[in-house]
Design brief:
It is a single chain. By secondary structure, this protein is mostly helical. It contains 25 helices and two strands. The chain has a domain at about 20-80 and about 440-510 and about 540-625. A two-stranded antiparallel ribbon has the order 1-2. A hairpin with a 5-residue loop joins strand 1 (about 35-45) and strand 2. The termini are far apart.
C-alpha cells in the first residue's frame, strides 16, 4: 500500500509541483473569465430577417463576485464555530473511540440520505417534464428505435452511422435498454440516467475522502476520512444543478462519466491496498465507458499517468523496491487498454450482427480538430459542417480526407502563428469562454423548446426558460466563481500537505481542458470535467476557513502562529510573497490593455448586440420567453 512518508523524493516534488502549477494556470484563466464576463446562448438577427443561435458574452463585475465570496467566507467561519461547539458537546458525552464510531455511523446515514434525496429530486424532474430527446440525442435514440423496427438505413451512404460509426456504441446501449423499458419509452431511460447521476455524486464524494490523507499517512480506508468534508462535497454537488438537468439529455455524458469515475475509484482503491480485484473492476468500467463515449479515454490516460508514476516511484525511489507492485501498476495499464479494445470489438460485432452489415470506417478524427479551430455559427470551434463537407468532397476516401484536413489545419496554424495577437490568442480565448464560461453549461439551452408528454408546471417552465432561468443563471454565475476560486485555494493551501494521488480527478479536468482547446467545442462536452472541480473547491474553502482562523489567532496573540513566526527570515517564503505581489501587478496592468478586452473581458454589447437584454430578459426580450 502507499505510504506517503516515502513519497518525499525529488521526483515526487517535481511531478507534484508541475501538475499543481499547470492546474493553477488553467483555473486562474477560467477564474478571470468568470469574474470579468459571462457567456450564454443568445440569438442574432441576420440580414434576411432570420434568427441564429449564438454564444454571446456580457461584462461582469469582479467586485460583486468578491463581495459574494467574502459573504460565503463569513458564513463558513460561523459554521465552523458552530460545528466546534457541537463537537465539544459530543466530546463530553463519549470518548475518542466513541466519537469515531458515532461520526462514521452518522456520516453514512447522511450520505445515503443525500443519495436518496438526489434520486427523488432528479426522478421528480423527469416525471414533471417527460421531455422528448432533442438535437443529437434525438438522432441517436431515433436510430435505436429504427433498429427495433428492422430499419438499418442509418448505415446507408451519408446517413448518420455511415459518417459517425463510433456512435454505434450508445445506439446499441439504447437498443438493448428498449427491451427492458419498452420500445419508445424514453422516460424509462431518463430514470436510469437518474441512477447514473446518483452514482456520479456518490463516487465524487467517496473520492473526496482522499483529501483527508496528508503526508505521512497511507490511503487505506481513505473514503472514511473527513466525514464532514464529504457531506459538504455532497451538498455542493446538489447545489450546483447544471449536471442534474442532463438526466433528460439521452447522450453518453452521464453513463460514460459514471463508468469512468468507477474506474478512477477502483484505481485509487488499487493504489491504496494493491488488490487485483480493483484492477479488474477498473478495467471493466473503463472498457464499457469508452464504448458509450470515446472521450472517456481522457480518464484512461489520466489513470495511466498516475500508474506510470507509481511504477517509476517504486522502481527507482522506494526503499523496499517491491518490483512486483511496480510491474503490477504497468500491467494495470495494459489491462485497461485491452479491456477498451475488447469491449469495443464486442460492441462492433454485436452491431454488425444486428444490422447484418459491416461498420463503415466513418469520418476522420483529424477533421474534428480542424473544425475545432474554425469559427462556427454557435461559437468558436463549434459544429459548422466542416467534417461532413470534407468527407463528402473527398468521396469518403479516408486517405484523401486526412490529406485535406491536414492541409487545412496547417493553414489555420500558420495564420494563427503569423497573427498571434490579432487572431490566434483571441480565438482560443473566445473558444475557452464558449466552452467554460457559461455558468449553466448550456443545460437550460439543451432543455428549452423540447416537446413534452405532459403539462410542465408553470414554475418549472420559468426555471427552464423564463424569469426563473435568469435568477438561476445569476446564482450559478457566482457559484462558478466560487468553484474556481475554491480550486485555487485548494492548490495553494494544500501544496505541501496534500498528496499527489489526490490530484487524479484534477488531472482528468486538465486533460479535458487541453483536449477541447483544439477539439470540437461545446459546453455540454466540458461539463463532465468541470464538475470534477467541486470536491477540490469544497476542500479549498475548508482549508481557507481554517487558514483564516489560524491567522486571526496569530493576530490576537493567542498563540505563536507559524504564519507569523519569523517568516521574513525564510528566503523561500519572502520570494514567494514577492512573486505573488508581482504577478498580481502584472495581471492588473494587463487589465488595462485592448488585448484583455478581446480575450477575457468579453462584452458583445460593445459590438452593438443587445446581449445584456437577452441575458437578463429586459427590454424587448422581456416578452419573448
Amino acid at each position: 500500500m502507499i505510504n506517503y512518508t516515502k513519497q518525499n523524493h525529488l521526483f515526487y516534488r517535481i511531478v507534484n509541483g508541475m501538475i499543481r502549477l499547470l492546474l493553477a494556470g488553467v483555473v486562474f484563466l477560467l477564474f478571470l473569465h468568470s469574474i470579468f464576463s459571462t457567456s450564454f446562448v443568445g440569438r442574432l438577427f441576420l440580414e434576411d430577417g432570420s434568427e441564429q443561435e449564438r454564444t454571446l458574452n456580457i461584462a461582469d463585475s469582479p467586485l460583486r463576485h468578491l463581495v459574494v465570496f467574502a459573504l460565503l467566507t463569513a458564513a463558513l467561519l460561523v459554521g465552523r464555530k458552530v460545528w466546534k461547539v457541537l463537537g465539544a458537546g459530543r466530546a463530553g458525552q463519549a470518548g475518542r473511540q466513541g466519537r469515531k464510531v458515532y461520526g462514521a455511523g452518522r456520516g453514512d446515514m447522511v450520505f445515503w440520505g443525500l443519495t436518496l434525496l438526489t434520486v427523488i429530486l432528479a426522478a421528480s424532474y423527469v416525471g414533471l417534464t417527460q421531455l422528448y430527446p432533442g438535437s443529437d440525442p434525438a438522432k441517436v435514440y431515433g436510430i435505436a428505435m429504427q433498429w427495433r423496427q428492422g430499419d438499418f438505413s442509418s448505415f446507408e451512404e451519408e446517413a448518420y452511422l455511415f459518417c459517425y460509426p463510433f456512435q454505434s456504441g450508445i445506439v446499441l446501449f439504447f437498443y438493448l435498454l428498449s427491451f427492458l423499458f419498452g420500445e419508445g419509452n424514453f422516460v424509462g431511460i431518463q430514470l436510469m440516467y437518474v441512477v447514473f447521476l446518483a452514482v456520479i455524486y456518490c463516487l465524487l464524494v467517496k473520492l473526496s475522502g482522499l483529501f483527508g490523507v496528508t503526508a505521512g499517512e497511507d490511503t487505506e480506508g481513505f473514503e472514511k476520512k473527513r466525514v464532514g468534508l464529504q457531506i459538504a462535497v455532497y451538498l455542493g454537488l446538489l447545489a450546483w444543478v447544471p449536471l442534474s438537468f442532463y438526466v433528460t439529455y439521452l447522450y453518453g455524458i452521464l453513463p460514460g462519466m459514471a463508468l469512468s469515475l468507477g474506474a478512477v475509484y477502483f484505481a485509487q482503491r488499487y493504489l491504496a491496498v494493491r488488490r487485483l480485484r480493483y484492477m479488474a473492476a477498473a478495467s471493466v468500467c473503463m472498457g464499457l465507458a469508452t464504448v458509450i463515449k470515446m472521450n472517456c479515454l481522457i480518464y484512461l490516460i489520466a489513470i495511466a499517468c498516475f500508474l506510470v508514476y507509481d511504477a517509476i516511484s517504486i522502481f527507482f525511489f522506494s526503499e523496499d523496491r517491491n518490483w512486483k507492485e511496480g510491474a503490477a501498476s504497468l500491467v494495470f495499464i495494459v489491462c485497461m487498454g485491452l479491456s477498451v479494445v475488447f469491449c469495443t470489438q464486442v460492441s462492433n460485432v454485436a452491431v454488425e450482427r444486428i444490422a447484418g452489415q459491416e461498420l463503415p470506417e466513418g469520418e476522420v478524427m483529424l477533421s474534428w480538430v480542424v473544425m475545432g479551430m474554425q469559427e462556427a455559427p454557435l461559437g468558436p470551434g463549434g459544429y459548422n459542417g466542416y467534417i461532413s463537407n470534407v468527407f463528402t468532397d473527398n468521396h469518403y476516401d479516408q486517405e484523401l480526407v486526412t490529406q485535406a484536413s491536414m492541409q487545412d489545419l496547417q493553414a489555420i496554424i500558420a495564420r494563427m502563428l503569423e497573427y498571434p495577437v490579432d487572431e490566434g490568442i483571441p480565438f482560443l480565448a473566445r473558444k475557452t469562454a464558449f466552452q467554460w464560461n457559461d455558468p449553466t453549461f448550456i443545460c437550460l439551452d439543451r432543455t428549452r423548446g423540447r416537446q413534452s408528454e405532459t403539462q410542465i408546471p408553470g414554475w418549472l417552465k420559468s426555471v427552464i426558460s423564463g424569469r426563473g432561468s435568469v435568477r438561476l443563471s445569476i446564482l450559478l454565475n457566482y457559484m462558478q466563481t466560487w468553484i474556481l476560486l475554491g480550486m485555487l485555494l485548494y492548490l495553494i493551501l494544500r501544496w505541501r500537505r496534500g498528496n499527489l494521488y489526490e490530484l487524479m480527478g484534477a488531472v482528468i479536468f486538465l486533460g479535458g481542458y487541453l483536449f477541447h482547446l483544439f477539439w470540437e467545442s461545446s459546453a455540454s462536452y466540458t461539463i463532465p470535467y468541470f464538475v470534477l472541480l467541486i470536491p477540490y473547491a469544497v476542500c479549498g474553502m475548508a482549508e481557507w476557513a481554517a487558514f483564516l482562523e489560524r491567522l486571526t489567532d496569530g493576530l490576537r496573540g493567542a498563540e505563536k502562529s507559524p504564519l507569523w513566526t519569523g517568516w521574513w527570515k525564510k528566503p523561500g517564503k519572502v520570494l514567494g510573497v514577492a512573486a505573488v505581489i508581482g504577478f498580481c501587478l502584472l495581471v492588473l496592468a494587463f487589465t488595462r490593455t485592448n488585448l484583455f478586452n478581446r480575450t477575457l473581458a468579453l462584452d458583445d454589447d460593445r459590438q452593438g448586440i443587445d446581449a445584456s437584454e437577452q441575458f437578463y430578459q429586459t427590454g424587448s426580450w422581456e416578452k419573448s420567453y
